[in-house]
Amino acid sequence: MDGAVPLFRMEGISKRYGGVRALEKAELSVTSGSIHAILGENGAGKSTLIKVMAGVVAPDEGRMELEGSEVTFASPAAANQAGIVCIFQELSLIPELSVADNIVISDPPKRFGLIDRQAQRRIAEAALARAGAADIHPLALVKDLPLSRRQMVEIAKALARKPRILILDEATSALAAADVAKIFGVLKRLRSEGLALLYISHRMNEIAELADQCTVFRNGRNVASYKAGSKSDNEVVELMIGREYSHIFPPKPARVPAIAAPVLEARSLSWTDRLDDVSLTVGAGEVVGLGGLDGQGQRELLLAFFGVLRGLSGQILIDGKPVAIASPAAARDDRIGMALIPEDRKTEGLMLPMTVRENLSFAALDRLSRGGIIDRSAEQRLIDDMVALLAIKTAGLDIPVGALSGGNQQKVVIAKWLMRQPRIILLNDPTRGIDVGTKQELYQLMRKLADQGAAILFYSTDYDELIGCCDRVLVLYDGAVKRELVGAEITERALIASALNIHGDDTPVKQGADA
Amino acid sequence: MKDWRYWLAEQRGTLLALGIFFVMFVIYTSNHPAGFTANVVQTASNKGVLLAFVAMAQTLVVITAGIDLSVGMIFTLTNCLASWLVIGTGIETAFGVVAVLGTGLLCGAINGAIVIYGRLQPIVATIATGAVFFGIALLLRPFPGGSVNEDLADALTGRLFGVVPASLVVLLVVVLVVWVPFSRSVLGRAAYAAGSSEMAAYMSGVPIRRGKFAAYALAGLLASIGGLFLTFFTYTGDAAYASGNTYTLFSIAAVVLGGVSLFGGKGSAIGAIFGALAFRTIGDLLFVFDFDPLWQPLFQGVILLIAVSLGAFALFRVRNRLEWFL
């Protein structure tokens, strides 16, 4: 908003994590009495930006001004003190404490040095009412509330801190429609009270309804700021496109002819509110990508196949026959032959203090042992094969796997599963946080495995990879498959548009997988 | 829901422990040869408060999602120290009491500093400090002995108005002076918050470190009150390794019986007190039934197993199996 004096300004803010730059000379100015929407695809720097604003992350360089004077925040508490309050996507509530305890947690009312419970209750009731959630009892424990109610408590908690700038990071993604409408009313009222609101969302209709001003981020930079409503959805997608291509991908085979019988098939999978009627097929020799914004159910879908989720409805078919997969142990069994390369290799993929050798053979021990005794020479042969196949760089097999670089750790995770010669390989964002060279090796490997007949389901937050590696991509939104892109349809524009659930071009929309 | 229902839900663990204790105690006294007399109650409470103080100490640390394996050794160390210092004229005795309590506080503060600022795991840190505390206790009392101001000891282990056990009154005073202010202070809430979700607490700007430190330090203080009482009860100091370890392990049992979650963030010291009293009563129950004392550990263990199994039912409701491991 030109003319108005900005309440808060960021200039030249940069932040790097290791070799990855999350923000590069980013700028932003926020005005009182307005709602400012931030847009951008995965990894565009939105999250880092607000973490810097909220004092969670210290920027490498750049300056921030509040009402014209320079400020720095050493901690979230310091940012709160200055009136900047952030509602994070990952909830910041303490589950075992009551709603009222949580609302006043940062600065409880005190009397004679102790917490004044009556005053605390009054503050909590007032804040809940202001957030339009007066139906939540202040004495209820947070852990007993459903997710959507917790989000309302989170908003009440933020309001109780009397913010001047309120940041909402995907604050509505967990809410029911009725709550969203309430929250919008609340946000509009706060705007008229003179607050500055920063609104991060991937729901274009919400932004259209709420925002006064929009800023688009790409590659850690703000690329455009415009008045809300002055650009069409298509133009917005255009602004978000333009990731720098830095990877080289192996050539894809000519389109695989229609697959006779899919190896892996899902029919109407649903699970709590995270998966909604997902159907898909993956054939032998095919790399099928899962796209969409982060957290739209992709992870849960892979866990569902791998037998981790309970209370799953729908059907999973292997080679056309329905199966019940009750645990990861059942999923990796030879009859199914499934492997999952998890998202967080440090907790779900590796036992960091154990040796490279032990980690490599963990998943295949049953194949390498007879009568419970491990056949050392067979183990050694297989390990040697894998180390050679994946070119794992390690000082030795008997050093802790935690001492390897991120890329080599990921290779160990993959090798450990390849030792079982799986027919179905699920990959959960496997290239996150590893170097470009290793990424390329993984792309080659993935294609090679597919050529050998494996069925691969590949989730990536990097659209570039989906375009470069996949034969087909299913885009998820709110736990449902919103669109299927095949072959040449897989473009950055189509991926972003369907991830935002808007239809940027005129390709027909398909629900679910091919019939 | 009405307010009282929320209160009830919050106090469920405590009330359950109270219930178990009440039932056990009724069975105990009604089968006791002497019956429900002031004398029986006095003896039971003197034995019970020792574990109650140590269990209160354990509660504070467990609330922060930690564990203190040195409480029994602080208890032993302060017992030995008291057998040297809590003696003589009124002033000397008072000085001795302050010195003993100060030592307990210091021991707890050392634990806290190592765990919070040294970033060591509580279990390892307190095994090590516990060994150190016991080592000092052994130097203080290589052999059982020493003495205590018997007037004070008799007053605090005797009866008020001929009926009320004085030790119970002291326990009540300690609850009012230490536990109630702690649980209602910002530091206390920080301790709960850190135990429940340290990351969320950090993101909310809660003083996590000070809260946890206060919990460890006060745990040392409470254990030393227990040590002081042991001295009043036995008139001597004894650096007994087995006894110290037993108190540590029993304090964990009492805490669990009292509805305090070992995962942190939940429970109260009041619950742990009833847990301690119930656990003691269960142990003594066999004597009034004329069972062979050999059965005592087995019986106590079975009761404990049943009690802690109740807490595992929540796992059946988990829908994402990965949450089992969180």
From TrEMBL, chain A:
Keyword Iron part of the UniProt annotation: no
GO molecular function, one term: ATP binding
Highest taxon above the source species: Bacteria
Keywords for the protein's UniProt record, in alphabetical order: ATP-binding, Nucleotide-binding, Repeat, Sugar transport, Transport
Record's keyword annotation contains Protease: no
Domain annotation ABC transporter: ranges: 8-244, 254-503
A Pfam family that the UniProt record links to this protein: ABC_tran
PANTHER family: CARBOHYDRATE TRANSPORT ATP-BINDING PROTEIN MG119-RELATED, GALACTOFURANOSE TRANSPORTER ATP-BINDING PROTEIN YTFR
Family: Belongs to the ABC transporter superfamily.
Protein name: Putative sugar ABC transporter, ATP-binding protein ribose ABC transporter rbsA-like
Organism the protein comes from: Mesorhizobium metallidurans STM 2683
Origin organism lineage: Bacteria, Pseudomonadati, Pseudomonadota, Alphaproteobacteria, Hyphomicrobiales
Automatic annotation (TrEMBL), chain B:
GO cellular component: a single term: plasma membrane
A GO term for molecular function: transmembrane transporter activity
InterPro entries: ABC_transp_permease
Domain of life of the source: Bacteria
Location of this chain's protein in the cell: Cell membrane
Membrane topology qualifier: Multi-pass membrane protein
Main subcellular location of this protein, as a coarse class: membrane
Chain ranges passing through the membrane: 12-29, 49-67, 74-91, 97-116, 123-140, 160-182, 213-235, 247-263, 270-289, 295-316
Keywords: Cell membrane, Membrane, Transmembrane, Transmembrane helix
Name assigned to this protein: Putative sugar ABC transporter, permease protein ribose ABC transporter rbsC-like
Organism this protein belongs to: Mesorhizobium metallidurans STM 2683
